[in-house]
Structures are given as C-alpha cells and as structure tokens.
Input
Amino acid sequence: MASEYLRGTILEPIERKRLKAAREFVEATDGRYGAKVELDEKELCIKITPGPGATVDAVLKLREMAKAVALGFAPDRALQLENEDYVLAVINLKEYTDKPNHLRRILGRIIGEGGRARHTIEQLAEVDMVVGDNYVAI
Output
C-alpha cells in the first residue's frame, strides 16, 4: 500500500495567482485514488495524504497532476495526466543559459510574436505548453 511506501503528506507549492485553479483541482481529485487532497491557502500548497487504500502509482500520478496545476496548466488539462499516454515534462531554461539576457531571448523565441510560435508548436506537436519565467512545461 502507498501509505507504507510513501509515509506522510506530499506538499506541492503553488503561487498565489494559481489558487483558483488549485481549488478546482482539489474539488475534482479529493478522495480519488484513495488519497486525501487538500489546499492549504496559508502555506500556499496542495497537500496529498495517501489513505490506506491508495497505491503508489495513484499517489505519484496525483503528485504529477498537482505539479501541472502549480506550473500553470488548467485543472482539466492536468487531469489528462490520468491517462497513461500523457506525461509532464518540465524544462528549466536556466540550465541552458548563463546570462539573463540569453534567457529572455530564448523565451522570446519559444513564445514568438503575439504567441504565434508557441501556438504553432502546440498545434504541430499536439501538446499543451506553459511558459514560465524560467521554465517550459509540456
């Protein structure tokens, strides 16, 4: 059982601007997979507590979905990660740059003018993408 393997609560930090999406995610997932999902608005985190009937796979899947919401995906998009065909990939762009100017240039190329490059990438690759301050989540 998951509670034997994953002892304690898993915390996924979120930004204040993502609280609404986090509330929707918690409503949609609480009690699913045999785990308790809560939103702590004071600590700004999503808490996942494995119950006695939860499996390790289910808890890890919930953690990945919570991370997707924390990164900026809509809750309905994050819930698509329930399907085995979907995965969450996060690329930290700071690993590829050494100067802030280079980071802005890379983000500009990914987003494109008016978001056209990003939209084209999403259409051609058939993915959902979130571009953050220093990361790209696919």
Observations:
- The chain has a mean pLDDT of 89.
- The chain has six helices and six strands.
- The chain has two domains: 2-82, 90-137.
- The first strand starts at residue 10 and ends at 13.
